[in-house]
Specification:
Helix content: 25-40%
Strand order of the largest sheet: 1-3-4-5-2
Radius of gyration: 14 Å
Largest sheet: 5 strands, antiparallel
Number of domains: 1
Shape: globular
Structural class: alpha+beta
Order of helices and strands: HEHEHEEEH
Number of helices: 4
Number of strands: 5
Strand content: 5-15%
């Protein structure tokens, strides 16, 4: 597959129809269905684009830490900030940062980008409207250094 085909595939998934995991239970069930060793690219929007899929242990840690962060910082009795192209067998997952939501559901002309993307195809750079906050950069880097 050429770089252009990979970019087109990523963009098609990224801009395509996504389904919200509205309840916390749906999110719990969704995480359980993710095959940790399936070749997931883990991308923090604003950081360098990964060039290789994460190891299964990295995916496991990312899911556990992201789930904990979302439950701690999204002060609602519902989730609604994680979206997938297919909730049973996803290839693309967008996770919105609870501290930078704006209108994440797509009704805005310029919705904020997700905080994090899990993709089974190599990602391309997603533009942020501002720099990645240092607290999020430290959190992200701690996932892979600790």
């Amino acid at each position: 597959m050429t770089a252009q085909e990979t970019e087109s595939e990523f963009e098609a998934l990224y801009c395509g129809r996504l389904w919200s995991l509205l309840s916390w239970q749906q999110l719990t069930d969704f995480w359980a269905r993710i095959d940790r060793g399936a070749g997931w690219y883990l991308y923090a929007v604003g950081e360098p684009v990964p060039t290789a899929p994460a190891a299964a242990a990295e995916v496991e840690r990312f899911i556990a830490e992201t789930d904990a962060l979302l439950r701690k910082e999204h002060h609602h009795d519902y989730c609604g900030i994680v979206y997938a192209d297919d909730v049973e067998a996803p290839r693309m997952v967008k996770i919105y940062d609870p501290n930078n939501l704006g209108v994440s559901c797509g009704f805005s002309k310029n919705p904020p980008p997700p905080g994090w993307v899990m993709s089974r195809v190599p990602p391309v750079e997603v533009q942020r409207t501002g720099p990645l906050p240092e607290s999020r950069r430290r959190w992200w880097q701690s996932l892979f250094l600790g």
